[in-house]
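Section 4.2 – Deliverable D4.2 (structural model, holo form)

The reporting period included a commitment to supply a predicted holo structure for the target in complex with alpha-D-galactopyranose. Inputs used:
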Amino acid sequence: MSTERRLRLPGLAYGGDYNPEQWPEEVWAQDMALMRAAGVTMVSVGIFSWALLEPSQGVYDFSRMDKILELLHDHGIAADLATPTAAPPAWFFRAHPAALPVDRDGRTLSYGSRQTFCPSSPAYRAAALGIAGALAERYADHPAVAMWHVHNEYGCHNAECFCDTSAAAFRNWLRAKYGNDLDALNDAWGTAFWSQWYYDWAEILPPRATGADPNPTHQLDWRRFCSDELLSLFTAERDVLRRAAPAIPATTNFMVMHNFDALDYWRWAPELDVVSNDHYLRSTDPESQIDIALSGDLVRSLAGGRPWLLMEHSTGAVNWQPVNRAKTPGEMRRNALAHVAHGADGIAYFQWRAAKAGAEQWHSAMLPHAGTDSQIWQDVVQLGADLGALAEVRGSTSPARVAIVWDWNARWAMEAPSQPSGALRFQDLVRDWYAPLWKAGVAVDFVRPDAPDLDRYQLVLAPSLYLVDDAGAAGLAAFVEHGGTLAVGFHSGAVDENCHVRLGGYPGAFREILGVHGDELFPLLPGQSLTLAGQIPPGASADLWSERLRLTGAQAVATYADGPLAGVPALTRHTYGSGTAWYLATHPDPATLAAVLQRIRQEAGVRPEREVPDGIEVVRRRGTDADYLFFIDHAGHGAEIPADGIELLTGKPVTGSVTVPEGGVAVVREQVAEARGA
Ligand code: GLA
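Output (structure tokens):
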């Protein structure tokens, strides 16, 4: 990540997607006045404006954008200027029908919405770079432009295209990966199985719909290719912008949230000048505050620990779930300030003004259909004031001593077809482990499996690491050897980077560190559960997974008390080198998992940020000469918490304890004894 190209705005950024082209010009002046009233400092413009900016190929109309940028500048509002390449115009597809994407079943999709293009289409790439270049040339020196917003949510609707052009691009990617050696590919993919051996590169196709289960390594390389293919579109646009405007940072909005798994953001993040993320709540998630925290910690980790921007979330309901719930009183403020607590240096919404037409007319916005005579508007103005009061938090970081291993390759491989259990979901398994740490107020970073600097953590957790390469396994082993504590979840270390089973017993790559040997997997059926016994809370149960394990150096901390594996270890602890390695070979009920993780972290010497009552989130951001303690009441009971300093949202001094209002937030600046240096 570039150090020179940073977003240079004072304080925390505040704003949203601004689409004035969807409104008559009379409305724009009102927008400016209301943005000022709400404390908006930056808006994203032009995200879906391609058809208006380029009415026909190579013919540009910048008249509207000129006025919009002028207006923003006159009102002291910065522009995050988008390249509109997520929504190619109709004229483009009429000229280039081959750029339309084809789905797994061979169906060609039509234009008429957005992100309906083939990522490998040369015509699309040329057109996208054309409009990006024209915008860059025109606006590189415009004083309103603070950042480039490249495209929008890469891969949201078109992460995979199965057309012949994509097939050719996939083959090129494979040739590069396997050094043009077809035997190496055959070996990696295990194509001796089911007569899949390839004799000619031209025989290789994307994993299109076929009669039986696909080859796992073929699938996995395909997912890697699709992520890389979109990444190359991002870097190509970024480079065009960079050439024209070397000092302006570029971002693209990630989607680190439930269910979106198309992109390997560990590969993407270093290419961005500023990491930004979109996060939306799932209406059916009763603890969406945990999802916000998890995604915030993951995005901050992707950003190398540096602050990031929340590019989109919603003031109220979205429009794309089966039923779209509104937020409860105070929830919008808690959500936004939780993102700040987890490292966001700016908060933005989709979108500024609620649309009256188009597919998103029922999506909430900062300025709702009802206008300023609305609760949401009041909340938006309040949040602007809050962010203003928190300006000094900008640039502060996180002091986590616990890391959770997160890997998109492991996720893709484990969730592919023909697994021992089709019920395993990577993000759910990670969240199961993250939730009790969050509830206890323990700060967490996320790391890639081969992270070079694990030694700065006391405790590393790998809740779900089905796939791990030798370097990743060796790094985790070294961490334990040097005195760290590692806890590994079931069905981890099972396969290498080619999805080949690691032979000799489960959990393959981690057998030696964990001091256990498994010889058979016993996934549980839906509704089936087992009782656990040992040094765990009475009445403990487990579902989803079990395995026949014997000890080869570890001690059993808990065993199965019933079922076919009665007496077999379910939780083990092993001293390895100067450290300790735990193996949780099953999926305990949440209370048991919380108790297990509490013991593990206490033995590892990891303490919470502060003891807080249930339902209060506590997060620390670490500044140069002060720490910022965020207390967020998700339970609605309020609390009195020991603290000293200044409560920034009210500006009042805090002596001995701070009051967290019911359903509210308190942020205490605590002075540190000595400045830490930048
Ligand atoms: C995504 C997109 C936005 C909008 C929102 C609606 O995040 O980037 O353009 O469609 O979803 O929630």
